[in-house]
Description:
Largest sheet: 4 strands, mixed
CATH architecture of the domain at 14-42 and 67-116: Roll
Strand order of the largest sheet: 3-6-5-4
CATH superfamily of the domain at 14-42 and 67-116: 2,3-Dihydroxybiphenyl 1,2-Dioxygenase, domain 1
Radius of gyration: 16 Å
Shape: globular
Order of helices and strands: HEEEHEEE
Structural class: alpha+beta
Strand content: 25-35%
CATH topology of the domain at 14-42 and 67-116: 2,3-Dihydroxybiphenyl 1,2-Dioxygenase, domain 1
Number of helices: 2
Helix content: 10-25%
Amino acid sequence: MITAFHSILFSEDAVATREFFRDVIGLPHVDAGGGWLIFKTGVSEMGIHPARDADGKLYEHQAQYAVSFMCDDIEATIAELKAKGVEFRGDVITEEYGLVATMVVPGAGHINVYQPLHPLAHDL
């Protein structure tokens, strides 16, 4: 049956984005040929969120998906990434599901990093 969850991140500068995840974030990877890196992202979870709020109003996001990195200690993670030159947009915010920071990814916009406040499914 299903053996893994494969995510795709589209980038305006795929080389810079791959270098960021390889050299700065330090994700293990394989080269599928010609520098096309595929990264091991570790354990994963998938949450299904409604597209509309309780009043039926469509949320203001256009994507039908979102990718986030989870961590155990948001402040320590941010400090480690900033020491490697990673930029963040704004401060850590508290959401119902966790403590969230927005990391700037070269060529690919931004990705949230969060310390979950919800029960974890990836340990099941």
